Amino acid sequence: MNTTSTSVPVRRTDAPGSSATSGSAGASLSIGDLAERTGVAPATLRMWEQRHGFPVPDRLESGHRRYSEADVAGVQEVLGRREAGVRLDAAIAEVLAGAQRAAEPRAASVWAELRRHHREVPVHRLTKQTLLSLSWAIEDEFAAKAERAHLFGLFQAEQYYRPARRRWRELSRVAGSAYAFYAPADPDAPTPEGATPVLLDDDSPVRREWAVVCDSHDLPVALTAWELPGQEGVPDRQRLFESAWTIDPTAVRRAARTCAALAAQAGAEGTAAVQFALADEPAPVAADLAAVSALFSRVVAYVDDGHRPRAGR
């Protein structure tokens, strides 16, 4: 069988600009080595390459294939998904998609990621008081309905998180994971029990953001917002934010992945397991998400007329 069809992507180690070199540690395994490490026969690996474009080898000038440790991990991940009942083509597609996500630039902003990938989500200019009301509603629904969801809260600074600590301690007891992002007043002070803290640096872009992200099958919801600049002297609860809200599971999953990546970058505990849990695409839902989001957006426009302050977040 000819496995070097032009339809198959091949990395050439002698290609201009290639970072791989002949005999490099990055791609030093032969196809026999890869077969031995993974238990997949060389003929099967060649068939996968020809039919599915995976794994993609480097090529020596002689034409021989060379693979890296990342290729070993990728093949093993495909095998794991196959054992879980996933079709071969779907398993390979999922692994390739995961590798592509891993190669994307480091996350810097939940708001920016959601806006960049989901421009269809409506944007509203809201006061902080409105964001508080929406946040409380999401948190209440989460506590009542969500099953072991992954929960993320962006509070900007510790002074805004402090009133919500007890509330988030209760939420963390029913969550699969719960993370609270804020800039600490004293970085050396002990952190409170409850939600896992994600301590923000002074120059972190997330310090200007507000968010509640609840990733679960039965209650996916993400509220994200970015504080507008130039509001010195404005009373706290009248500060304005550009805000977006969605229950689209795909958009919520992206927001949750971004939060988890930011938590990992900050060195927060337990993020590896959370990122693994969020790696797959979410299951589709039967609801008309566009109609529901449009209805909620109309509600948001009215709720900003004014409401009473409430203790808590």
From TrEMBL:
<dbReference type="InterPro" id="IPR019278">
    <property type="entry name" value="DICT_dom"/>
</dbReference>
<dbReference type="GO" id="GO:0003700">
    <property type="term" value="F:DNA-binding transcription factor activity"/>
</dbReference>
<keyword id="KW-0805">Transcription regulation</keyword>
<dbReference type="InterPro" id="IPR047057">
    <property type="entry name" value="MerR_fam"/>
</dbReference>
<feature type="compositionally biased region" description="Low complexity">
    <location>
        <begin position="15"/>
        <end position="27"/>
    </location>
</feature>
<dbReference type="InterPro" id="IPR000551">
    <property type="entry name" value="MerR-type_HTH_dom"/>
</dbReference>
<feature type="domain" description="HTH merR-type">
    <location>
        <begin position="28"/>
        <end position="98"/>
    </location>
</feature>
<dbReference type="InterPro" id="IPR009061">
    <property type="entry name" value="DNA-bd_dom_put_sf"/>
</dbReference>
<dbReference type="Pfam" id="PF13411">
    <property type="entry name" value="MerR_1"/>
</dbReference>
<keyword id="KW-0238">DNA-binding</keyword>
<dbReference type="Pfam" id="PF10069">
    <property type="entry name" value="DICT"/>
</dbReference>
<feature type="region of interest" description="Disordered">
    <location>
        <begin position="1"/>
        <end position="27"/>
    </location>
</feature>
<keyword id="KW-0678">Repressor</keyword>
<dbReference type="GO" id="GO:0003677">
    <property type="term" value="F:DNA binding"/>
</dbReference>
<protein>
    <submittedName>
        <fullName>DNA-binding transcriptional MerR regulator</fullName>
    </submittedName>
</protein>
<keyword id="KW-0804">Transcription</keyword>
